[in-house]
């Protein structure tokens, strides 16, 4: 069986959210599964001297317009959150912790967290809000609340981000298919051809 | 008749080159003409505190791979120039000067300049090389050589770049359709839907 597609994303990334709504169907069409990797762009941007899109002159205004237009273009519900960007440690740790225990549930929770932030305007940087979303999908609230405060998961997320950067990840979404890297929802057309043809 | 599509580009921009190979056919399909606007990203990046893609850690390596892959994906001849990026004053001034005299010739010369740089590896930042390309399409070499050294054209290009920034332009290619801005070759799918439907 072919290797999974690696899908790197930050919970604060609008294009990451849009991509999260499309990646499963695209992979499934070519018999592939998806390995979901939450990362922290805040950490990565320190290394690459980048700043969030919306803070760049001219580009910032354009980006906000493009988030909403791209959502309409791709038929995805989207509302710009009132608090943006946010630190995404809490949701990233939740998904990472669940991945090791129940990968399918981890993906359902990741989708619910992303949707809460980018559709329902829930501030998922708040650990209690993030825990409540996981709990609504059957995760034990007390257990996950304790887990995401422990040094082990913090350390694991730090390693995950380092590994992502070692693999070349500098933005969100970032997708690796059989070693070939693709940055952005707007490379899904190229990803599809790559999956269909093996290369081009 | 519908207004032309505004196409902003820098002669040193790989994605601008790829877009230049596609914009005419896309516009023509919807009965539109294209107004070609050479700009200077070097000037714009100073205002927006941005740096050329290829100089950003991780993103730089990815970009070089993506230029070539995107060219293959879109079926456009492309070779990464040995000198990159370059200052694009000379070709920009040539095109601007020709636009006021023979707009159709200006577009043919723009295409020839872009192709020389991104396919034949000619350093078009060299005024003599740029003049020779224009001359090969029938432009008087002596006249254009003199024109691009004069204060009038330098001042005009400066104003053009200021006007582009006032219109929101922060990158290349940047396309404005009936007031709606689109950044990047990878927004051509959205541009096409906008042209087809009037909005979405």
What oligomeric state do these chains adopt?
homodimer
Main sheet record of chain A: 4 strands, mixed
- Summing up helix and strand content along with how strands pair, one would put the structural category of chain A as alpha+beta
The total count of helices of chain A amounts to 10
Helical content of chain A stands at 40-55%
Largest interface: A-B, 30 and 30 residues
> Strand portion of chain A, in percent?
5-15%
Rg of chain A over CA atoms, rounded to whole Å, is 16 Å
Low-pLDDT regions of chain A? none
Question: For the terminal residues of chain A, how far apart are their CA atoms?
Answer: 21 Å
Order of helices and strands of chain A: EHHEHHHHHHHEEH
Q: Can you count the beta strands of chain A?
A: 4
Task: State the shape of chain A.
Answer: globular
- Write down the overall mean pLDDT of chain A: 96
Strand order of the largest sheet of chain A: 2-1-3-4
Short account of what is shown:
The structure is a homodimer of 200-residue chains. By secondary structure, chain A is α+β, with helices and mostly antiparallel strands. Helix content of chain A is 54%, strand content 9%.
